[in-house]
Design goal:
With about 250 residues, the protein is mostly helical. The protein has helices at about 1-15, 20-40, 55-85, 90, 95-125, 135-160, 160-180, 190-200, 200-215, 220-245. Helix content is about 75%, strand content about 0%. The chain is globular.
Length: about 250
């Protein structure tokens, strides 16, 4: 337990010490999205009855920030440790693979939730927002952050250079996030793109999280949670298998 707490504390301290970059910058980015898209589309688009577009937009921006920063925390930490060579100081102590995995994912979840809370706090100055089902909000936030934290660990293991990790983020994480319904309801899309959206696991995290605020969603929240839980289990097992094999870590 002490080994786990030490590694988790080290990972949390890592992003806290540069909080202007790891927390402040994502909050500012989300605020810019809200100001720009809200100004352009407010009054011209109503996704749910009685819900202003800016109010509809906020949960999507919060969850987008949670997901992207959870991924960034675990992936960047691991790739930097590999490049600088200090990964050896993590691998040499008698830390189990489960403790290694749990510490990195926990730190990723904490950073994701901190950024998400910051985005929510700042945007509440611009919109009125109520939470219909807070338990759904918390559940999807935790599950989504854990899933992206585990996925970040997988990316950190597989990638050997910063540019490889950047390519993974730019060509996988960012497109899946932007095409998940952050800025729109998938019911506004043609049939083909609606079907394509259902193949995107990020859609279920965004949609389920938004349900907690408005009590309305494009897909049943219980089914969304089951899909997210299945994806989390699959990615976690993959990450643990990679850690156990020592692939690109010990060899």
């Amino acid at each position: 337990m002490t080994r786990f707490r030490t590694l988790a504390g080290k990972e949390m301290l890592r992003f806290i010490k540069v909080s202007v970059q790891t927390v402040g910058a994502p909050v500012l980015t989300a605020l810019l999205y809200l100001v720009i898209f809200g100004h352009a589309l407010e009054g011209r688009l109503e996704v749910y009855d009685g819900v202003r577009y800016t109010s509809f937009l906020v949960p999507g921006l919060v969850m987008m920030s949670v997901l992207q920063n959870s991924f960034a925390n675990s992936s960047s930490s691991l790739i930097q440790s590999k490049i600088t060579g200090n990964i050896v100081f993590v691998l040499l102590p008698p830390i189990s693979y489960a403790e290694f995995f749990a510490a990195y994912v926990l730190a990723a979840v904490v950073r994701g939730l901190v950024v998400g809370a910051g985005v929510l706090a700042v945007t509440l100055a611009f919109v009125e927002l109520r939470v219909v089902a807070p338990l759904w909000v918390l559940t999807f936030a935790l599950a989504g952050a854990a899933l992206l934290g585990a996925l970040g660990l997988v990316a950190g293991v597989l990638c050997e250079k910063i540019d490889q990790l950047a390519a993974f983020q730019n060509f996988v994480i960012v497109p899946l996030t932007f095409l998940s319904g952050v800025f729109y309801s998938i019911h506004s899309l043609p049939a083909f793109w609606q079907s394509a959206s259902h193949a995107n696991p990020f859609f279920y995290m965004i949609d389920g999280f938004r349900y907690g605020f408005f009590g309305v969603s494009d897909f049943p929240p219980a089914a969304s949670l089951a899909i997210v839980a299945g994806a989390l289990a699959a990615v976690s097992l993959g990450a643990l298998a990679l850690l156990r094999s020592g692939y690109k870590l010990r060899h």
